[in-house]
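During the second year of the project, the team shifted from modelling isolated chains to modelling whole assemblies. The rationale, set out in the original proposal, was that interfaces cannot be judged from single-chain predictions alone. As a representative example for this report, we include one of the complexes processed in the last quarter. Its constituent sequences, exactly as entered into the pipeline, are reproduced here:
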Amino acid sequence: MTDRTQAARLARRHALSLLLVLTGLLMLAPVHWLFVTALQPAGNAFSVPPDWLPDKVTFHNFSAVFDLIPYGEMILSSLKITVTVTAGSLITSALAAYAFARLRFPGRDVIFFVLLAALMLPQQLTVIPTFILMRNLGLVDTHASVILPALVNVLGIFLLRQFFLSIPPELDEAARIDGAGHLRILFQVILPLSGPALSALAIFIFQLYWNDFFWPNIFLNSPGKMTLPVGLVALQGSQGGAPALVVFAAIAMIVAPVLVLFLFFQRALIESVASSGLKG
Amino acid sequence: MATATTSTGSTTKHSRRLRGMTARRSDTVAGYLFAAPAVLLFLLFFALPLLATIGLSFVHWDLLTPPRAAGLANYERLLGDSHALRVIGNTFVFTFASVVLHLGPGLLMALAVQRRSSRPLKYFLRTAYFFPLLISWAAVALLWQYAMHPTFGVFTHYLGALGVPTTSWLTSPTWSLPALLLVDFWHTIGFTFVILLAGLQAIPVNLYEAAIVDGAGALRRFWNVTLPMLSPTLFFATVVSFIGAFQIFEPMYIMTNGGPGDATRSIVQLLYETAFRSFEVGYASVLALVVFAVIFIVTLLQFRFARRWVHER
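Output from the structure prediction step:
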């Protein structure tokens, strides 16, 4: 009797597992379709049903992307913006988080809560005045217009402050007795102990700006200055539409680095998104 | 070890006294200096634009000729603008459907995955559900635009194989919004899934053990243990999904351009077009304030509710 119910339970559990594996594969199928199609020679394009395991592949579509749009420049633009924004906002966040976690000064808590309230501000609320500001400064269609507003990350300040608060204050007080200034304490005591928080935040900011479309689409117009997502959409719309296979190769080249990043930093990525409570 | 502890203890006390006497002023200066980069950037790119958006909502301005005072004209225009109101309505429909899709299937997926004992299986499922979230919306939108193509789209093909009549999904007045919801689900479900899974794993096992001792079946355990314990997480996920979905822009902008007609236009797309295509800065600012107002209200609700469940705990 118990044996039979156990067997039934086992079967049920495996049926559910099987169903779950199927849903997982279904979620991954579009990505697989993307890579398989991007690797197809022109004649084979978009066979229906698709060739899920093609025996002939070519990298021709990938090189064609570089002929159609300044893809190299776009990669450099994306990298330049994303790396600058990540490094810059880590620094401004760490400095501010140290002030809010470790220093006492008049108005500290008020300033901190005003900053926190900004987590509610949607991008759309600030984009119009910022566009006008950038236009008056002559910065529209420069990378500065994308980088500057991104150099402050309220969420980063908040997360790092929480992490700094968990580091025993005795550590930096000891350093203080030894004559270390605040900058030294931050960079030589606090930050070396904050590796997990810093890397989670860095990955989160990196993928956020690597993927962002809304803001760079408004501020960057010259193809050479566009970031990859903006350039990708421009490529598809170019001259009555680029060849579909070339667009696929371009999409694949945006997805591939994220895929690699994900496989290496899965834990940190998932945790950073979960703890941030914000969508990419 | 014991001596080390006492010595740090005494230096702490010593340094506290030191700090109280001499270090306070340097704390203040350093505090302002350290917070300054973030605070100045914040003022320039958050606080100032927020005030400016409010100010701009009271002017007519095309960015070329000087701005003219508009009084409440932009606000009055919104009340009589059936096009804009329809778009706002669309956005609410999209948002509610998106939240329901995330919370319902998302909870089922989290419940199912939590029970799996096999680590590789868990790892695979977490990866598979979460990965699309990391792909740029631009790439997601283009990929699915091809997948939903009426003739060579892989999505269209397999639906056809299941007996669903072939439609041009993205240009159909009936099906374009559901099609975008599906793409939104594919892209964003990993977020809700991860949050709900974390919430489920935080529920103490002994609550379930106690319920079993009391003779509670699976359904009762779900109603009396899982749901109440998960309710804060569920509420948080609802609010964050709502805020995210209400600001949706890329899939409609790229895949359907808001069409056919206005079937899939979202308020952020309308804002974008009003500001950067027809250069009606004042009216676009009113639309931006509508987005803000909705998000503000939802966030306030979150805090209200949070206070209630924190007390209950």
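Chain B has twelve helices and two strands. The longest strand of chain B covers residues 59-60.
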